[in-house]
Amino acid sequence: MDLLANLGLGLSVALQPHNLMFAFLGCLLGTLIGVLPGIGPTATIAMLLPITMGLDPATSLIMLAGIYYGAQYGGSTTAILINLPGESSSAVTAIDGYQMARQGRAGVALATAALGSFFAGTVATFILVMFAPPLARAALNFGSAEYFSLMVLGLIMAVALAHGSILKATAMIVVGLLFGLVGADLYSGAPRFSFGIPELADEVNFVAVAVGVFGIAEILRNLENETDRDVMVKKVTNLWPTRADFRRMAAPVVRGTALGSILGVLPGGGAILASFASYSVEKKLSRTPQEFGHGAIEGVAGPESANNAGAQTSFIPMLTLGIPANPVMALMIGAMIIQGIVPGPNVVNQNPSLFWGLIASMWTGNLMLVLLNLPLIGLWVRLLTIPYYLLFPAIMAFAAIGIYSINSNAYDLYALALFGALGYTLVRFGCEPAPLLLGFILGPMLEEHLRRAMIISRGDPTVFVTRPISAALLAFSVIVLVIVLLPAVRRKREEVFVEEE
Amino acid sequence: MTFNRSDLGAGAIFIAIGLFFGVTTLAELDIGTARRMGPGYFPIALSGILILLGLVIAAKSVSHDDEALGPLPWRGLVVLLSVPVIFGVLIRPLGMAPVLALTTFVTAFASRRMSVKAALLLAVGLTLFCVVVFNIGLGLPLRLFGPLVEPWTRPVFGVR
């Protein structure tokens, strides 16, 4: 029984006291930033990444993962209590969750979200255990042509799932790719875009890019109009759902988990898509669709399970292929590289304790989150009202210390300011920051595999379509592109993303 | 004639970035051939694509109506974009503690709601917190006091 042995190894790592402690710290921090306004998990993980460099690789990834799914929990809390999704994937939860809160059922909505997420997290962890190793084995046969095509598919999915204009999202990816190329050329060693300044000869620091386009840009957005948050529910009581509630939420939770597990694997933000898909499925299947939008418990249970399952399974492409499904996974890949681990299909063989420990920690982490969220909800409610002007100076201070401590290079801080300005301007002009970060992480890998494939094929570009797996991946990319550009889908896509905002 | 300022602006930025990378590549890097790609091959291809995308996005701005963009947070922009630079320039001569206090104090004024007293309290509190967490707790190798202030701090705090 490989499976049990692997799980056993994972649990033995995840249950080590210091790993438990850092998982707890990660969950706590994640919930905190999910609840607090104006800083998302991407920026937080980017800022804390330098600090985790001193920990051993497994512990550091366990903590970063904890922040990620902790933020999902915290994000639903704000969605339900103040109608402000702390996370884009909990935007759907706000629709019915907030209505439930207005009817005095905030406690039930929160408990539904937490229990649904826990169920989804448990199932998705098992899916990871079952599907990740075979996928990693299959990926071992991938050559450069396959990797190139896979990354093209990933980037096209990221475009398809980004909000707003497809053209702009594509351009953002190209911008990311270009900035990712700064630094020494892999084959010739020639410095690129360094202008003879030695401090610029290294690649652009990706923590600075991430904190700039996600952190600083977000703070500036929030400063556009400063408002106080209005918390309607001062005290949350009656946490436990009734027997009837349980009966109504059971099926949506299961369906949401299934949807989320499948869609989460898709590159480009599957968790968000999953929660939307789950909401519309529940509305279609419901015998009382008129209740949706007015506090239907199914509208909380389904999407919450879906986004948590999706968050979990988005680790699959990251752990097995080394390809990020979303900006947070891009940061995880960055964290691995900093720790000296080469992301890709070899992680499971070369670092089994890290691989299985991380997966097992997701389950312990989810359990901690239920315990952390339900009994302590009063504390989180109070934190909702912390004024923003006390928060962002702290964010800036942590960001500056974190970034400077990586290389003690002041140019990294100048890059932070530059990418903050660029990120804010582009976001203001209706561009999404996520594709930029994905492009930035994938840029060097994409170039490496393209050039290697072309060298091996002696300059014959048909290699990408004559190798079957590569051809299939590229064909799939074309199909996705065509579907997204179909007029009917385009209109529908616009509707969905308008609803979200 | 109306045109969408967001599209025009985004298009212009993309074109500018494309030109920047494209021109630099042409001036400094060997492009090579498809068979043996040089360090400039991928950048020049991407720059071309980006300029093209920028042109299309800018051209389409004519067919979209303009939308209001909302007020620009001028204070925030000036403060938040200069704070990392201040931090970067002063961290070596001053050390972490004075720089943190200074930058936090400055950052606080990005918000219109900040008072001088609150900003001072925040600066002191946050600096203490960061010193305890990062320096003592996590042991980050950052000097608390740099050479410029050390003559005064050494008698009180010792060498840190």
Structural description of this entry:
- Chain A is mainly α and 501 residues long.
- Chain A contains 23 helices and two strands.
- A two-stranded antiparallel ribbon of chain A has the order 1-2.
- In chain A, a hairpin with a 6-residue loop joins strand 1 and strand 2 (191-192).
- In chain A, helix 8 (166-180) packs across helix 20 (434-456) and helix 9 runs antiparallel to helix 18.
- Chain B is mostly helical and 160 residues long.
- Helix content of chain B is 68%, strand content 0%.
- In chain B, helix 3 (74-94) runs antiparallel to helix 4 (96-108) and helix 4 (96-108) packs antiparallel against helix 5 (116-137).
- Classes of the chains: A mainly alpha (501), B mainly alpha (160).
- The interface between A and B is large, with 68 and 73 residues.
The low-confidence runs of chain A, each spanning 5 or more residues with pLDDT under 50, are none
- Topology pattern of chain A, helix = H, strand = E: HHHHHHHHEEHHHHHHHHHHHHHHH
Radius of gyration of chain A: 22 Å
Cα separation of the termini of chain B: 64 Å
**Helical residues, percent of chain A:** over 70%
Number of helices of chain B: 6
Strand content of chain B: under 5%
Task: Count all strands of chain A and give the number.
Answer: 2
User: What is Rg of chain B?
Assistant: 24 Å
Overall pLDDT of chain A = 84
Largest sheet of chain A: 2 strands, antiparallel
**Largest sheet, strands/sense/barrel of chain B:** none
Query: β content of chain A, as a range?
Result: under 5%
Main interface: chain pair and counts: A-B, 68 and 73 residues
Contiguous runs where pLDDT drops below 50 for at least 5 residues of chain B: none
Mean pLDDT of chain B: 85
The helix/strand class of chain B is mainly alpha
Alpha plus pi helix count of chain A:
23
**Helical residues, percent of chain B:** 55-70%
